[in-house]
């Protein structure tokens, strides 16, 4: 991108990274470019005085029919005076059929605010389309929320979904941590990514919720909820364990934030293995309440274990 007001940076070509947006002067800055296939998104520009910043570009998608790690989302730019930080870009999707691992792209971190709020973290990319030749599949992690001095911290991005039926585990992406604040409230943690293992035997674990952001004089952020883990389909049982994601811990503050709820685990039909709900997150100090545990599903007529 050329330097100027409200100008968007270019997108990356296949395998290339998106461009970085330059600083604006009086109006909000342009958005950063998206990554090409497999490339990372560009970084948002710094905001002008009294002007918001640019948001980070979205990460490129991973290559198809191969081991693929999708591109990460770009970081949000920092806000100018009184402006909020920009949101991080979302991670790219991975379409991988093996061999190797398929991994969704990580979400970009939110930008920093001063008197404005921190930017929200980008969401992690998902993984789908994998089959038994793939070693493992994982959703991308959510980006962290941006911090702020007197505004509130940004929310953490959500972890990406993971599906398919690889040789190894199917693992949801973890939620990003909430941003911290000095005199505002901490940002909430992102939600953990859900998972679905639909045919071949193996285990699946949903993503954990992100930790809530801390605050010096305000309230700590709530921990993110854990993701839901599903194994099998209504008319198709699969052998293996399903574990719900753990809830994120609440952030510390003058008042601690509450912990996130643990994710549920569900077995949709028959098949050997355990279903275990995720544990709830711990409350922040002082006074935060711990999150509830997730519920275990039903396996062969017997109840699973609650978190």
Secondary-structure blueprint:
Blueprint: E1 68-69, E2 94-95, E3 101-103, E4 127-128, E5 136-138, E6 170-171, E7 195-197, E8 204-205, E9 229-231, E10 242-243, E11 265-267, E12 275-276, E13 298-299, E14 302-303
Parallel strand pairs: 1-3, 2-4, 3-5, 5-6, 6-8, 7-9, 8-10, 9-11, 10-12
Antiparallel strand pairs: 13-14
Region (Disordered): 1-307
Protein name: PE family protein
Biased composition (Gly residues): 7-21, 32-62, 71-92, 99-128, 139-193, 207-229, 242-263, 270-307
What this model shows, in words?
This is PE family protein. Residues 1-307 are annotated as: Disordered. Residues 7-21, 32-62, 71-92, 99-128, 139-193, 207-229, 242-263, 270-307 have a biased composition (Gly residues). The protein is mostly loops and 307 residues long. The protein has a domain at 129-302. 0% of the residues lie in helices and 11% in strands. The protein has strands at residues 68-69, 94-95, 101-103, 127-128, 136-138, 170-171, 195-197, 204-205, 229-231, 242-243, 265-267, 275-276, 298-299, 302-303. The strands form four sheets. It has a seven-stranded parallel sheet with strand order 1-3-5-6-8-10-12, with no helix packed on it. Strands 7-9-11 form a three-stranded parallel sheet, with no helix packed on it. A two-stranded parallel sheet has the order 2-4. The model is unreliable at 1-7, 22-29 and 298-304 (pLDDT under 50).
